[in-house]
Amino acid sequence: MRDEPSRDTIPTEAVQRALVTLHHNHLSQFTAAGLFDHDPDRGTVTLTNHPAYHDPGILAAIHPQERTDIDAGSLDGLFSALSDSRRRTILASLNHSFQQIHLETLARDDGAREQRTAESAIPKADVDQLLSNLRHVHLPLLAEADLIDYDTEKQLVAYNGHPLLRVAWLHSVLDPDFRTRLTGTTADEGVGTIEGREGVVAYSQSLLERVDDELFSIFTATGLLEAGCFSRVMDASQRGVDVFLGTTDPTVRELIRENAPEIVLWEPDEDWLDVPIEEDRVARLLLADRDALMLGTLRERTDEGVYEETAFIGEGETTRQLLGSRLEQIEQTTQEFNSHT
What we know:
This protein has helices spanning 12-32, 56-62, 75-82, 85-95, 103-115, 124-144, 167-170, 178-183, 197-210, 227-238, 250-259, 317-323, 326-339; strands at residues 36-39, 44-47, 101-102, 148-151, 156-159, 192-195, 214-219, 242-247, 264-266, 282-288, 292-301, 307-315. The longest helix is centred in the N-terminal third of the chain and has 21 residues, at 12-32. A hairpin with a 5-residue loop joins strand 11 and strand 12. Strands 6-12-11-10-7-8-9 form a 7-stranded mixed sheet, with helices on both faces. The protein has a 3-stranded antiparallel sheet with strand order 3-5-4. Helices cover 43% and strands 18% of the residues. The protein folds into 2 domains: 73-159, Arc Repressor Mutant, subunit A (Orthogonal Bundle); 177-339, Endonuclease Chain A (Endonuclease, Chain A), CATH 3.30.870. It is globular, with a radius of gyration of 23 Å. Helix 3 (75-82) packs antiparallel against helix 6, helix 4 (85-95) packs across helix 5 and helix 9 packs parallel to helix 10 (227-238). It is of the alpha+beta class.
């Protein structure tokens, strides 16, 4: 093994080149991002208390040697792909879809998000420009970073994901308290409420990222296990989490059997939908480590054919209050499944 050179043996010219690169490239970018405090008069650099330093994904990227499943060389492509806000919007759209999306559909969705209007209201000239940007700029970079699957012949795009790509990154936020940003309440304040499908999906995925030991989940309607949720369920199973997935969706069941046979599949009966909440029928139920709960309900269907959703979330004692005797039923269900494995 080659010895690392000492500071005293580094040529002066090399030090000067490094100083120029730091001053005119790296330091300015880190300072602009709020990661460094740089005092040029004193010639000092210090770390800030940026939330990025508390994000497990960022820490794993800084120290990639601690993750055997991450290729250190792929991290540059990952962060380059995430550096553009439009590419993050594209990823968010794909992340919330279960099936592949046609390129024109993705362009219209991207334009609707950017202009905050209905997809049908996007002018054709804008759609054509968005299509050109997708084909020649954004999708190649996302595909190169292995974040998406892009079939150029069929013009179909699907979310692929990355082991380090956390939910907060997709939403352009490095926020350790994702719950507070979505609900306006903290865990200490009891039950939180999330309005809107996008927030419900995002919080579902954040639970899937944080689960350590056991995930008990139910998806009662077809198409609710979006690509981003599916990839995180798979990742949880690969991390050694005991996953119990209740669904009647034949596509999901087939994908699980083919790709993750260790996940326990089961079909929830009608009794599971009888949860005492004053809303429409239960759509999603995720219980992470018996401690953190998200209970989603379906509301009215939008013009695009997608249901609006509301979710109630809780942690600790609040979880037990929301589920009541259901916790005992979950315990019995998981024990029965485990006894047959």
